[in-house]
Amino acid sequence: MANLINLQGNQACAMGAIAAGCRFYAGYPITPSSEIAETMARELPKVGGVFIQMEDEIASMGAVVGASMGGAKAMTATSGPGFSLKQENLGYACASEIPCVIINVMRGGPSTGMPTRPAQGDIMQARWGTHGDHPIIVLTPASVAECYTETIRAFELTERLRVPVIVLVDEVIGHLVETVDLEALAPKETIERRFATGPADGFEPYAVTDDMVPPFPRPGDGYRSHTTGLTHLPSGFPTQNPEKASAALLRTTDKLDLHADLIEACEIIECDNADIIIATIGISARAAQQAVTDLRAKGIKAGLFRPKTLWPFPEKRLKEVAKNAKIILVPEMNQGQLILEIERLMARHMPVIGLNKINGEAITPAEITAKVSEVLA
Amino acid sequence: MDHFEVRFSGSGGQGLILSAKFLSAALVSDGYTVAQSQSYEPVSRGGLSRSDLVVSKGQAAFPLSQGLSFLLILDGAAAQASNDLLNRNSLVLVDSEQVPIPPTGDFNLVNLPFTKTARDLGNKRVANIVALSALVARSGMCSKETLETVVRTKTPPKFASLNIEAFTAGWHLV
Predict the structure, then answer these.
(1) Are A65 and A71 in contact (CB under 8 A)?
(2) What is the structure's pLDDT at A23?
(3) What pLDDT shows up at residue A99?
(4) Smallest CA–CA separation between B123 and chain A, in Å?
(5) Which residue among A163, B17, B22, B166 is least enclosed by CB atoms within 10 Å?
(6) Domain ends where: A185, A220, A239?
(7) Is position A304 within any domain?
(8) What is the pLDDT of residue B40?
(9) Which residues have C-beta within 8 Å of that of residue A294, sequence separation ≥ 6?
């Protein structure tokens, strides 16, 4: 007998984090992400974890990075304005390869915007919010069940690869309550961080290994370590030597290419013989999923391409899936962000058309089917 | 019914989301899969507020309302807000006191004294439970026993007997 419960997306993120072994949360509540903090405040102490409400989002992100440097699986959650504030310390975590998970439940923006209303306006900020070339992974759940499973995957990726992972949720999915069976979704085993072992003598905290992921020196284990946001050598100490700086920076981004198979995830529905492919994320993908069914019922060959890992963008998969398509439609609740990436990849092969909505309401299946009929006419 | 959509609408603070949660729990125990969403304004009380249930056998592709089978309106602020989602099969229940100008159109409209019934029980804040009960009694979307069990077990002990009185009064309104 399935153990079905009604669970909210935000709560599912928190439960997923705990199931993945998260034992530290620092945050500053902000609509529409607050239920994540609320759930962590209630549930973390029960499993011996620590919850801290910090004075603001900057300090929250600092606390998360610090806790992770201490060896804990650590997370924070926020929305628009708070996500902007977290960028500097997020950049530090990217540069010094400190595992952490940041959940950003997108609200209408810019600035304080429409706190209780949905948008998908942080697609580019999630990729490029902190300055400089940096590695980052961004996951985009489209259901309550996926809020749970993708948060678990976020921890697996961040711990395994030492790259900060952002879980990018839109307000509809974050506040949506769906019927789920958490027992069926629970991880059988989790992927853990590799801590340094072996001789402490001559240990290099950023040594170049075959998998490009240096083992993490856990404080107290006796390894001499130095952590800095300055571009650093395998020893952890800063360098401005052009060759060495370049090699150090390239390793952190090449690491993602090396582990692309582990990182990449998409949902592909009815794309095999599709004339029109709808590429989108989150609640817009749920609308597109129904639109595909409705369009197929009318004899229009439509398909859905949904990147569950948004960044790095699954470009090989899109190229494969769309090679025989005639048009790509990109519905998104912003003025055109995801479409820029898809145009970069596909515009020379076929028209890429946007469907945008920024009024604080979700895109509906009817709006997508109408747009498809319009572009095919 | 394999797929139907329900909306509780009114103003913030009326307990609309709570009613939706109760109904959602009852429907799940009857074997349905439910997606519940809500919309409210960034204020503690007042402002347009609503909670929707999309009810299906198995997860619905799109979890938001596209055409309401059942609409409850508890406040004049929400009177016209859902007109685009109504059709000739929609059943619309409105509070006869709080909604002076109900929506008009080709659908089934029923005026009922939810707030008055709640006030007669001693607390107008249980109008949400009166209305929930009346909606289920009228529509038959789940059994009386299932909903009553949910109301009884999910209400804090302090308010349990008041909510059960509201449930019973609502059931007999239709």
Answers:
(1) no
(2) 98
(3) 98
(4) 29
(5) B17
(6) A185
(7) yes
(8) 82
(9) A365, A369
A129 and A33 in one domain?
yes
Among A83, A37, A19, residue whose Cα is nearest residue A57: A83
Alpha carbons A114 and A12: distance in angstroms, whole number: 23
Rounded CA gap, A147 and A13, in Å?
5
- Is residue A345 a part of any domain in this protein? yes
Domain that holds residue B122: 3-171
In angstroms, rounded to a whole number, what is the distance separating the alpha carbons of residues A335 and A351?
18
| Burial of residue A261 (number of CB atoms within 10 Å: 0-12, 13-18, 19+) | exposed
Question: Percentage of chain A with pLDDT > 90?
Answer: 98
Residue B87's Cβ-count burial label (10 Å; 0-12, 13-18, 19+) is exposed
Domain region containing A177 = 5-185
A253 lies in some domain: no
| Low-confidence stretches of chain B (pLDDT beneath 50) | none
The DSSP-derived string for A186-202 is S-SS-----B--S--TT
The encoded tokens of residue A224 equal 């001499």
Give me the amino acid identity at A315.
Answer: E
A283 contacts in B (CB within 8 Å)? 63-64
Q: Which residues contact B13 (CB under 8 A, 6 or more apart)?
A: B44, B45, B46, B49
> What number is the ipTM of this complex?
0.92
Q: Does A27 lie in the same domain as A158?
A: yes
Q: At what angle do helices A282-297 and A365-376 cross, to 10 degrees?
A: 60
Q: For residues B42, B44, B49 and B55, what is the CA-based torsion angle, rounded to 10 degrees?
A: 100
**What is the CATH classification number for the domain harbouring A114?**
3.40.50.970
Residues in B closer than 8 angstroms to A116, CB to CB, are: 39-42
Q: What is the DSSP letter of A364?
A: P
Residues of B in contact with A287 (CB under 8 A): 62
- In Å, what is the CA distance from A26 to each residue of A23, A94, A102, B101, B150? 10, 18, 10, 48, 35
Structural domain tally of chain B? Answer: 1
The reply to whether A89 falls in a domain is yes
Helices and strands, number each (H, E), in chain A? 15, 15
Residues B50-79 pLDDT 10s: 999 999 999 999 999 999 999 999 999 999
Burial B127-163 (b: 16+ CB within 10 A, else e): bbbbbbbbbbbbbebbeeebbbebbeeebeeeeeebb
Q: Which residues of chain A have pLDDT under 70?
A: 1
CATH number of the domain where residue A351 is located: 3.40.50.920
Per CB distance under 8 Å, which residues of A are interface residues toward B? Answer: 4-6, 31, 115-117, 143, 172, 175-179, 283, 286-287, 289-290, 293, 362, 364-366
CATH of the domain at B138: 3.40.920.10
